[in-house]
Write a structure and sequence with these properties.
Structural class: mainly alpha
Number of helices: 5
Number of strands: 0
Largest sheet: none
CATH topology: Four Helix Bundle (Hemerythrin (Met), subunit A)
CATH class: Mainly Alpha
Strand content: under 5%
Distance between the termini: 27 Å
CATH architecture: Up-down Bundle
Helix content: over 70%
Oligomer: single chain
Radius of gyration: 16 Å
Shape: elongated
Length: 148
């Protein structure tokens, strides 16, 4: 496991302990939704870095872009519906990241189908920024929960 994944799991575990007194989300729910977001991280990371390293948008990367987006929507929705103690900063980052990720996934599919080099180049540059935004959103929830 990567260090960031271990940190994320540790932060989610601490958030579970902090959340226990809130009567918000139960341990099982947090595990399911948090697990979906961690799987989204893995899928999205594979897609972005695969595309960045190879410089090509392959079909397998499209599958992982769409999988990462779907898992993130599921995990984020579940946490949003089951938690009352979310930070506004995390909420704003999360919505921005989800919108960016959705646009990113749709654009990836379009560029892949079209095969246009100019669009592929712009997509390649855009990928880094959406990924960084998504990482800020990913780590902001557990960090804000830990230090609040």
């Amino acid at each position: 496991m990567t260090t960031s994944l271990l940190l994320q799991i540790k932060f989610f575990n601490n958030a579970l302990i902090l959340n226990k007194g809130n009567k918000d989300m139960g341990r099982g729910e947090m595990t399911i939704f948090g697990g979906a977001i961690i799987l989204a991280l893995l899928a999205y990371t594979y897609a972005v870095w695969g595309e960045q390293i190879t410089g090509k948008l392959k079909g397998i990367f499209i599958v992982f872009f769409l999988t990462g987006f779907t898992l993130d929507v599921f995990g984020t929705s579940g946490m949003f519906l089951n938690t009352r103690s979310a930070s506004p900063i995390h909420g704003i980052l999360g919505i921005a990241a989800l919108l960016g990720m959705g646009i990113h996934a749709a654009w990836a599919l379009r560029v892949w189908k079209k095969g246009d080099e100019k669009s592929a180049h712009l997509f390649h540059r855009y990928s880094r920024y959406v990924y960084i935004l998504w990482l800020f959103a990913f780590f902001s929830g557990p960090l804000l929960m830990k230090f609040s």
